[in-house]
Amino acid sequence: MTPDEYCRDKAAKSGSSFYYSFLFLPPQKRQAITALYAFCREVDDAVDEIADPDVAARTLAWWRQEVDQTFNGTASHPVGQALQTALEHFELHPEYFHEIIDGMEMDLQQHTYPAFKHLALYCHRVASVVGLLAAEIFGYQNRKTLKYAEKLGLAFQLTNIIRDVREDAERGRIYLPEEDLQRFSVSRDDILSLRQTPALTELLQFQAQRARDFYQEAKAILPEEDRFNQRTGLIMSAIYEATLNELERDGFQVMQHRLSLTPLRKLWLAWKTARRERKRAR
């Protein structure tokens, strides 16, 4: 298996919404964004799939070394080797990859967030920084596009947090800020005990509106001249916003089941959005 095949397999097996948006990219950009996504999956899995925190921390430390080796041209992992190919065509900065790992380390060091500003830092590291790297791969002319990428990444991560409340609680993590828990009279024990309460539903409605505000801010910032190049992000936005809408229609019953769109619907949304942006660019 070649490095690129490894990354494609990693992306396809994840079932992520990101995978469907990559299908509409030209080969060189698709190779680079798939390698970036595979890197994110590897470091995320190091935290989520390794039960021993010490082993997880050592794994992340190994990935820090691999990032440095990747930028020195001596990567040993298939993902690093695929990223080396991407670096031949795109200006990606090693600091961003280290910042993503910083975000993953936060999962090992803290399981709650006092206020939204603290959560926003986490979201910036694990999602907005990925958006900034993706923007470099997709291409842009106007630097306002970078602000769009940051806000869109934040919206994506907030959507994930709402969808994954139960899954995160089972790992002992609560990403809903403590100030919001107090505001809506939801206790940490409610979350960790997986209780679906009316108060939790109200809290998730509030968080969903916060996410929608960031989606709207992001799309309002995106310069018209960069829309077509950034269409992959717009495809992901269509899929994530549809997921958020389904969560709301379901009454935010996140403790009862994990909601996700079918692969067919994701593909349809991706095709529909790509077609719309192609027409708009003409």
Fill in the keyword field for this structure:
282 residues; mainly alpha
Q: Can you summarize this structure?
A:
The chain is mainly α.
Count the E strands. 0
**What is the mean pLDDT?**
94
Name the assembly state. Answer: single chain
Q: Which secondary-structure class do the elements indicate? A: mainly alpha
Share of residues in strands: under 5%
Helix/strand order, N-terminal first: HHHHHHHHHHHHHH
Q: What is the 3D form?
A: globular
Head-to-tail CA distance between termini: 39 Å
Specify the number of helices: 14
Q: Main sheet, how many strands, which sense, barrel?
A: none
Rg over CA atoms, rounded to whole Å, is 19 Å
Percentage of residues assigned to helices:
over 70%
- Poorly predicted ranges (pLDDT <50, ≥5 residues)? none
Overview of this protein structure:
- It contains 14 helices and no strands.
- The protein has helices spanning 3-14, 17-22, 27-48, 53-72, 78-87, 94-109, 116-138, 144-163, 165-170, 178-183, 188-192, 198-221, 231-249, 263-281.
- The protein is 74% helix and 0% strand.
- It is an all-alpha fold and 282 residues long.
- The radius of gyration is 19 Å and the shape is globular.
- The mean pLDDT is 94.
- The longest helix is centred in the C-terminal third of the chain and has 24 residues, at 198-221.
- Helix 1 (3-14) crosses helix 3, helix 8 (144-163) packs antiparallel against helix 12 (198-221) and helix 13 crosses helix 14 (263-281).
- The protein starts with a helix and ends with a helix.
